[in-house]
Amino acid sequence: MNELGAKIAITGCGSSTPTQVITNDDLSHLVDTSDEWIRTRTGIGRRHLASADTSVSDLAAQAAQGAIAMAGLTPQDIDLIILATSTPDDLFGSAAKVQQLLGASNAVAFDLTAACSGFVFALVTAAQFIRTGVYQRVVVIGADVLSRWVDWSDRSTCVLFGDGAGAVVCQGNPNEDRLLGFEMYSDGQQHHSLNLSYQGQPTTLKEGVLIGQGTYQPITMNGREVYRFAVAKVPEVIEKALFRANLSTDAIDWLILHQANQRIMDAVAQRLNIPPEKVIANLGEYGNTSAASIPIALDEAVREGKIKTGDIIASSGFGAGLTWGAAVFRWGI
After folding, report:
1. Residue 269, domain extent
2. Which of 8, 62, 114, 297 could disulfide-link 16, Cβ–Cβ 3.0 to 4.6 Å?
3. Residues 6+ apart with CB under 8 A from 53
4. What is this structure's pTM?
């Protein structure tokens, strides 16, 4: 896929999740639900929630530190930091804060927003900088603290989301190009299906000058529509990424999907004829951590020894926008 540009390897991973936990039984005291109701519909048992004094930047920096260390680098070696998040600490962006927390004084840093597709989109973006030879060592982080924006009285959404961060290091590689194929899509016609939207109130500054001032409203979601979208589009986008990579589904060692719903993951794997033992899932422990979910699952599987150097991983993110994408890569150098 990359005959002219530099080659890429993903050489390190890391993750960070808060210590606070809220279980399904805990939620049954907040809303009319039960452990059985949540597990049978989502596969979620627990979710980790950031404390009031824990920031997205904190979690992102901790995940990045783990990835940089695994890659055998120091923060000063990093050229670029891409933070995929929908919940920055600062609406102007949080990547520069992460850079400061890391001490990555030689890196440029920016935020990228594509909701639950954010990590895949950021990984592909990082690859372009490496392939053009502009940067050699890039940290890609997916981090979200959705607990800030959940309506904890809304049974349809409060059972789903958790907080966390995951990261990888991408490096120029003199050997094989290890990002084998990717595809990305957006469909704004379905934007209404999943929102965390701004709502302002009219404010008059002077006669004839009316502005809106307000804040963002809690997450709203049409779960049925998002489920239909994911089950239809995710297998398709993975197949297209595999086509780009000149691979069949039989070549996949591991499937890591955005951890949104166990039924979605099961349906996608079944359609692709990928056996359950090849599907990496930690949804039961963390819930939906948005842009963080794929790199958290990757990091746990690598550190547990499941994923080994040379394994081929198919990953796919999907969510608000609506956006969806897939990346197929070989782990390690």
Report:
1. 180-189+220-330
2. 62
3. none
4. 0.96
Q: Which of 24, 170, 258, 282 is catalytic?
A: 258
Instruction: Tell whether 194 is covered by a domain.
Output: no
Assigned token pair, 175: 């050997």
Same domain, residue pair 184 and 163:
no
Q: Are residues 170 and 303 in the same domain?
A: no
The count of structural domains within the chain is 2
* Catalytic entry in 116, 158, 261, 282: 116
Catalytic, 258? Answer yes
The CATH number of whichever domain residue 97 belongs to comes to 3.40.47.10
Q: Per residue of the chain (333 residues), what is the pLDDT tens digit?
A: 344 568 999 999 999 999 999 999 999 999 999 999 999 999 999 999 999 999 999 999 999 999 999 999 999 999 999 999 999 999 999 999 999 999 999 999 999 999 999 999 999 999 999 999 999 999 999 999 999 999 999 999 999 999 999 999 999 998 889 999 999 999 999 999 999 999 999 999 999 999 999 999 999 999 899 999 999 999 999 999 999 999 999 999 999 999 999 999 999 999 999 999 999 999 999 999 999 999 999 999 999 999 999 999 999 999 999 999 999 999 998
Is position 200 within any domain?
A: no
Same domain, 148 and 121: yes
Q: Is 116 in the active site?
A: yes
